[in-house]
Amino acid sequence: PTALNLAVIPGDGIGPEVIAEALKVLRAALGDDVELATTQFPFGAGHFLETGKILDDSDLDELKKHDAILLGAVGGDPRDARLKGGIIERGLLLKLRFALDHYVNLRPTTLFPGIDSPLAAPGVVDFVVVREGTEGPYVGNGGAIRVGTPGEVANEVSVNTAFGVERLVRHGFAVAASRPAKKLTLVHKTNVLVFAGSLWQRTVDRVALEFPDIAVDYLHIDAVTIFMVTNPGRFDTIVTDNLFGDIITDLAAAISGGIGLAASGNINPTGEFPSMFEPVHGSAPDIAGQQKADPTAAILSVALLLDHLGQTDASARVSAAVSADLAARGTEFRSTAHIGDAIAASLDKN
Amino acid sequence: PTALNLAVIPGDGIGPEVIAEALKVLRAALGDDVELATTQFPFGAGHFLETGKILDDSDLDELKKHDAILLGAVGGDPRDARLKGGIIERGLLLKLRFALDHYVNLRPTTLFPGIDSPLAAPGVVDFVVVREGTEGPYVGNGGAIRVGTPGEVANEVSVNTAFGVERLVRHGFAVAASRPAKKLTLVHKTNVLVFAGSLWQRTVDRVALEFPDIAVDYLHIDAVTIFMVTNPGRFDTIVTDNLFGDIITDLAAAISGGIGLAASGNINPTGEFPSMFEPVHGSAPDIAGQQKADPTAAILSVALLLDHLGQTDASARVSAAVSADLAARGTEFRSTAHIGDAIAASLDKN
Ligand SMILES: CC(C)[C@H](C(=O)O)[C@@H](O)C(=O)O
Ligand SMILES: CC(C)[C@H](C(=O)O)[C@@H](O)C(=O)O
């Protein structure tokens, strides 16, 4: 494309700061080849508290007109009673993932040279989690009776379909096939969640027959947390459900330098709807507006965005620029803008 | 009691080896004060493959006649098709937890002096997870339709009741009150699992009013995995549901020297049914019968057993003996029996 029509949701807290840097880098990476048009959307906890609105159907229609969405972070003060029960997370973030059919939640993990891990001997860390994004216990299919009484019962239902699991698993195998290690690990809890677990395991077993070059194994979610801290090098491509993917990608971020570096793509592989790219971190209201946030996760999300749009060269240049920046990173404090400027400038030079 | 009537389920793989050492230590700790009677039960994957039996009502009746149960590990070769779908885990381990109403799954985590953590800077690690044991997605309340077809739907239901959550939360506060740090952290995913999350959060808020000395906070399960590797010292008493507790206790074990050291108690606090004590590790069929397994987790489970039975002095002596043994542990290989003998001998001396 010679034009990129991007929807931008800076969001709350540190969201606008990191997005400003991500956009600088995106512009630098695209150069003169691609004309970038951005439309900002005000959605977030702040917008909700001001207007009472989170995200409605007409908003979704507007967003759908774009090639992709870049999101900073959404969410307000966790102690604010008006935001209780994940109203922003569910009404905005999850609503986007569901409405735009982001069934692949792609979360690469790399321990970049020069980055400290909390692990004493991390070894090489380079894997990607292919997390399902539209099913599992995230579907909102719970309920409660006799709320607030001693007879209360509160249920949560994890919904898993052959349709949903197979398309995710197929994407996972395609990702694994594109990587040198050619290894796919299914993560679940098949010894307890037997109905869902059986569907996931059977689907992986069946699709695996079409990918004889890919080594396939299985780990329970509890065992995964052990290997993640004792031998993360054993992972290449992880395929897992929505909730297990949520949990292990935070752990994966933690062992590879923190959520300040963790990027993600909420991807609709069919291209029917725009995909959405966002750092894994939250809005961190405590440090908002202070230029303390690390924009690297947002910038690496731009690399995922470029890759998704077929701008593979530009994507690789952003990743390389981030890697070089991290390797050269000293111990002195650098502001959010300072980091973004440095990375954008290194792209301009090339 | 001047007599302790113990049911022993050595189980599969390394189970019998570690249980032999745990019993040596139990006998040494009890000395002449308490007469120990043990009844061995053959339950496990091996027994199932030989006899077709896992655990029936008459077995449960026999087990109920004992003061407590000591279990090694159950489970066979994971590739054995006859053991698929967690048939032993669910038919034996989970059945015992449910039938004997082990609603508290107590899992202490301590980084003992001299033990290497995979973390570069673990600091002091000393917390306890109070995991719910009889509800959540472990209840077996799932189902599937159109299995094996493109229209398959597989659901798993997490069941949470005011009754079940409150008794666990109350136990959690009692545990927190008994510890110097006096801090309780609720772990859940209240922003997504809103019905169950709300019940857990409201219950903790209400019970907290009765414990003004205890500092209470909340963390999402994903964030917990981050703190577990970046700042485990922030944890004191964690209260959580069955599945989240399963996941974080493996991670907790990993950061504090591995599941070779992780003990657990499946506790029925009312005393209506015998409580069951077991190492967190599995049956490890690959190293079974080779005297390679570390019996420390089983021995620390004996310490939990003694504490539960009111033998607090004996319990403290076992913990201290393990701690001393670990601190003195060199780098040379010691057999399972060697470790058990050393710890038992150090108790005999006192
Ligand atoms: C904010 C929350 C709903 C979200 C999730 O659970 O998916 C977040 O933790 C993430 O990983 O993107
Ligand atoms: C074996 C399995 C069913 C069990 C569980 O999930 O509770 C185990 O992982 C544990 O933590 O004791």
From TrEMBL, chains A, B:
Binding site for Mg(2+): D222, D246, D250
Pathway: Amino-acid biosynthesis; L-leucine biosynthesis; L-leucine from 3-methyl-2-oxobutanoate: step 3/4
Keyword Magnesium: yes
The keyword Disulfide bond is assigned to this record: no
Highest taxon listed in the record's lineage: Bacteria
GO molecular function, one term: 3-isopropylmalate dehydrogenase activity
Family: Belongs to the isocitrate and isopropylmalate dehydrogenases family. LeuB type 2 subfamily.
Protein name: 3-isopropylmalate dehydrogenase
Ligand binding (NAD(+)): G282, S283, A284, P285, D286, I287, A288, G289, Q290, Q291, K292, A293, D294
Site (Important for catalysis): Y138, K189
Source species taxonomy: Bacteria, Bacillati, Actinomycetota, Actinomycetes, Micrococcales
Organism of derivation: Conyzicola nivalis
Catalytic activity of the protein: (2R,3S)-3-isopropylmalate + NAD(+) = 4-methyl-2-oxopentanoate + CO2 + NADH
Cofactor mode of binding and number, as noted: Binds 1 Mg(2+) or Mn(2+) ion per subunit.
Function: Catalyzes the oxidation of 3-carboxy-2-hydroxy-4-methylpentanoate (3-isopropylmalate) to 3-carboxy-4-methyl-2-oxopentanoate. The product decarboxylates to 4-methyl-2 oxopentanoate.
Quaternary structure (record): Homodimer.
Gene this protein is translated from: leuB
Cofactor: Mn(2+); Mg(2+)
